[in-house]
Amino acid sequence: MQLNPITRALTGAGxxxxxxxxxxxxxxxSDAPTFKPLELNIAHINDHHxxxxxxxxxxxTLDGVATQVELGGFARxxxxxxxxxxxKNLLKLHAGDAxxxxxxxxxxxxxxxxxxxxxxxxxxFTPGNxxxxxxxxxxKGFLDELGKGTCKTPTFSSNVVPAVGTALMPxxxxxxxxxxxxxxxxxxxxxxxxVTVAGKTVNSSRPLSTTQFNNEVASAQKAIEELRNxxxxxxxxxxxxxxxxxxxxxxxxxxxxxxxxxDSHSLLGDFRAVGxxxxxxxxxxxxxxxxxxxxxxxxxxEYSKAxxxxxxxxxxxxxxxxxxxKATLLIGDSFKRKDxxxxxxxxSDTERATLLANLAASQPQVKVLTPDxxxxxxxxxxxxxxxxxxxxxxxxxxxxxxxxxxxxESTNRSSSTxxxxxxxxLARGSDAAQVVAEAFLFAAKRADFALQNAGGVRVPVAAxxxxxxxxxxxxxxxxxxxxxxLSGAEVVAALEDAVNNHIVTPSGNGSHPYAAGLRWNLDxxxxxxxxxxxxxxxxxxxxAWIAIDPVKTYVLVTNDFIxxxxxxxxxxxxxxxxxxxxxxxxxxxxxxxxxxxxxTTLARPARSEYSHQSVVTAAGISLP
Length: 624
What we know:
Layout (H helix, E strand, L loop, with lengths): L16 E2 L6 H4 L9 E8 L9 E8 L2 E7 L2 H10 L6 E5 L8 H6 L2 H7 L6 E2 L9 H12 L13 E2 L18 E6 L2 E9 L1 H7 L7 E2 L2 H14 L4 E7 L2 H10 L5 E3 L24 E4 L5 E5 L7 E9 L5 E12 L4 E3 L5 E3 L2 H14 L3 E3 L4 H17 L3 E5 L33 H13 L5 E5 L10 E4 H7 L5 E8 H17 L8 E4 L1 E6 L8 E7 L6 E3 L5 E7 H4 L6 H8 L3 E7 H12 L1 E2 L9 E5 L8
Parallel strand pairs: 2-5, 5-6, 9-11, 11-12, 12-14, 16-19, 20-30, 21-28, 25-31
Antiparallel strand pairs: 1-16, 2-15, 3-4, 7-10, 8-9, 13-14, 15-16, 17-18, 20-22, 21-24, 23-28, 23-29, 25-26, 26-27
Helix pairs in contact: 2-10, 4-5, 11-16, 12-16
């Protein structure tokens, strides 16, 4: 065993750590094996979630001024990986959750992601929880696609054990997921072990019931010991379990040197100079393993926006003596800034040239890159198909689903839709928002009820055929679903927040709440805190309605916009800020599409299922 008195010198975004090593008799004596000193570089991403397009009009602070840029995009990631291809002893790793979160997954179920990943050719990939969103069979198809061509990216996880005869284990000894791999780097064997978060995958995704998800730490340690028995001393853990879990796991493992992680979407490093105040920690984060030896941890944010590059130095005992590197935001070379009237305008050529020079000279947190041409061409074939796919039929509405924001409002947003002529005068409110909430509840395995803000549902749905374009017109944003653990009292408080928001600020009536599995009586003529009564929860098993329990903890599924406290949902925002949520990364439009495809036909729910059971307007009028 080696005991390390660690001396650290931390410098800026490219942290450099120097370590003095004292060797004990059992770890560094004359009988201990020696290794060739090794420099290792690891390029890595995680959690791209089928977000293959760049994010337009993203606001950063550049040279101290608010500036809109194009951020990320997988073809830009490809260009970044190619730009470092000449780096000495380079490994390219992806720490999971490649799938779920955009139309590219909705339509192509991982094929587009695999082909884009193959423009990089990762040395290793571990599945995240969202790789299991559509069961093991879908994951097998994705891995088959990932294995095509010359890349043949190895995919592995030490704690996922499929049953023999299932998609990921067609026969004994034919597992798609190996527990570890060995790479030879500059004549030195380097082992990579991997783990996939267990509880979240079982509870929130859809793996086969026969697939085992074992304890992450125990499984990783077992794999490490198998590697050590083969003489491997340099060990990387490729994990999909979250930054905090990575830090905790490092302390529990022997012999691990590096952890490259995902799942928590953690941005590591200091990005305050470019207007991003939040960071989960330093890059790399430095800790120690159970032996007291240095461990370096890295993660690279989310959605193809950032790129991580870690540099490690190993001594002749195979121990890490230093680690450094940084995460970098990838942006385009077009910039917009506000003019005197507050409108965003493309900057002048002179200003652009100055910006580019200053970025190159003094802001290492960002890198200006042109997307890779070949990757862009690959993506275009799918982007064109997405546009065509939107015309495809997904089902039928047997009756019109009227659009209403606030029951009793004077505006009839469905006036041109047949059978919606009086929808705005009825207590039930929005059929469209009600059905959307039902779709969200259908998508979320853990949730007791679903909540949707009225403004997030954009159009009424006429009776007749439903297309993909209908869905993406109804729900046009890129929101995802999150599950929140809340007390019954917090749920009622969130409802009160939502209604108070549009009563106090009439232009904000998009905040009005609709729910599935949750119903109430609403009197908007009363003061905040008194408007909701007889709030009831529908039992998911029996269908019976019972009064909400103020002290019981429930699971609410909603879109990430209001979960974060937007639209006046202050109570949700507090819980969200405290980390009391799980992001499913299910695109909310995709969830609606899946619901329609399953049901094949949509109709208005039974009146007893509507969230609004009775409504009194702010003027004191009881609605029919």
